[in-house]
Design the sequence.
């Protein structure tokens, strides 16, 4: 299915933005990933989504998912995602005085899945702990691969079918441009 190079694994990233020019922020993130050792193979369409989580009174998000290929190990890939966020001026990370969980952000790059094996450390959980609970993740992810399953065999399409329909997820735009 994919032209993987030696040592590479397939992974999926979730992108989100709800401040400023949201599409430009997502596109900049995708354009930056190759500089950090991450090839972008495919992008979903863009979705305008109602905020979910601890802070509901904030602007709607623009969300997308991308399929990637990388030879980076899980923690290295997390560092790459954080570096892409920092490139765009996002400085408030957990532990910083300004950090607020689920607060508005110009760019969020989450690591959803990498390869076939789960991974867990203090800094990183794979698959992403909320991947099966968020329509704004599942809808674009399944657009990339309808039969996608977690390492434990959970089929993501089955989980999406079980979620309530009240989390607004509206397909608004065509996929991001792929780098290079
Ligand atoms: N799969 C993962 N992808 C990204 N970050 C993760 C993952 N697993 C654990 N983390 C940790 O979560 C921390 C908080 O991430 P972030 O600031 O993006 O949270 P958030 O977007 O506010 O909330 P949420 O975690 O619910 O998406 C990161 O610094 C990272 O160490
Ligand atoms: N719709 C939507 N809601 C969110 C999002 C997001 O990307 N989209 N990100 C959050 C922080 O991780 C909190 N809430």
Sequence:
């Amino acid at each position: 299915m994919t032209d993987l190079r030696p040592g590479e694994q397939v992974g999926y990233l979730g992108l989100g933005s709800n401040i400023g020019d949201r599409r430009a922020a997502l596109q900049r993130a995708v354009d930056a990933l190759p500089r950090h050792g991450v090839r972008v193979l495919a992008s979903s369409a863009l979705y305008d989504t109602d905020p979910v989580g601890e802070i509901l009174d904030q602007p709607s998000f623009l969300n997308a998912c991308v399929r990637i290929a990388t030879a980076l190990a899980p923690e290295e890939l997390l560092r790459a995602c954080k570096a892409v966020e920092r490139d765009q001026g996002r400085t408030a990370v957990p532990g910083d005085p300004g950090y607020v969980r689920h607060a508005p952000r110009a760019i969020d790059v989450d690591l959803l899945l990498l390869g076939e094996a789960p991974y867990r450390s203090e800094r990183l959980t794979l698959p992403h702990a909320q991947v099966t609970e968020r329509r704004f993740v599942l809808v674009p992810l399944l657009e990339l691969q309808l039969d996608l399953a977690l390492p434990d065999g959970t089929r993501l399409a089955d989980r999406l079918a079980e979620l309530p329909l009240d989390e607004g997820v509206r397909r608004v735009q065509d996929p991001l441009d792929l780098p290079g």
Observations:
- The pocket of adenosine-5'-triphosphate (ligand 1) is lined by residues 78, 93-94, 101-102, 108, 110-111, 123-126, 128, 130 (CB under 6 Å).
- Helices lie at 22-32, 74-87, 135-144, 156-162.
- The chain is about 25% helix and 25% strand.
